[in-house]
Automatic annotation (TrEMBL):
GO terms for molecular function: DNA-binding transcription factor activity; transcription cis-regulatory region binding. The keyword DNA-binding applies. This is TetR family transcriptional regulator. It comes from the Bacteria. It comes from Novosphingobium guangzhouense.
Length: 205
């Protein structure tokens, strides 16, 4: 057993190997696409026997889920950092929206989004995996934030509107021929919040 972590050397090596497999698979999925990336190619790139890869992941779908988890974990941590422990206020929502946009427009987030959109029809399982492990969890965090001020139904509606507005902005930015700078992100969020009509006091929890 290792003194600091309480796990055996064998378990530590196994965890490191799994992390390496996920890292390699992530690069291949994002660069080549889901269909073009095979378990054999991943095993060859990682090195070692194919049996080692299959011992960690029983299918390509399972490995893709681990890749999504890796990206979503970092994404969710950044977004939830500005939501956790926060009570609803417009300034707090502004900070959260700006962080959300920043995370959505990171290179790996864009590549993963494009992968799911482009191959999701052929492979609906990757769309389901991505949504369950990513957007669905994030929606829950945002809904919890709104629920600190509004009742459950209003929190759900506000979450839908906020997520739709921000992800729609992300799509608009990706289609533009010229780069968009942080000042434009701030202008969008300020415009969104200034034109939002918050629920009447009788709907407040």
């Amino acid at each position: 057993m290792t003194e600091q972590t309480g796990i055996s050397k064998r378990e530590a090596n196994k965890a490191r190997k799994r992390t390496e497999i996920v890292r390699v698979a992530s690069g291949m999925f994002l660069e080549q696409g889901y269909a073009a990336t095979t378990m054999s190619a991943i095993a060859d790139t990682v090195g070692g026997s194919k049996a080692t890869l299959w011992a960690h992941f029983a299918s390509k779908e399972e490995l893709f889920a681990a890749v999504v988890d890796m990206h979503v974990e970092a994404f969710a941590k950044d977004v939830e950092e500005v939501l956790t422990g926060q009570t609803f206020s417009v300034p707090a929502l502004r900070r959260a929206c700006l962080r959300f946009i920043d995370c959505l427009l990171r290179a790996n987030s864009v590549l993963l989004y494009r992968l799911v959109v482009s191959e999701g029809e052929r492979f609906p399982e990757i769309k389901e995996t991505f949504y369950a492990r990513g957007p669905a969890k994030l929606r829950c965090a945002i809904a919890d934030f709104f629920a600190t001020r509004f009742d459950a139904e209003e929190a759900r509606k506000l979450t839908q509107l906020t997520v739709s507005a921000v992800t729609g902005y992300r799509s608009d930015v990706l289609l533009r021929p010229d780069p968009v700078d942080p000042a434009q992100h701030e202008a969008f969020v300020d415009n969104l919040l200034s034109h939002s009509v918050w629920p009447a006091e009788q709907h407040v929890a």
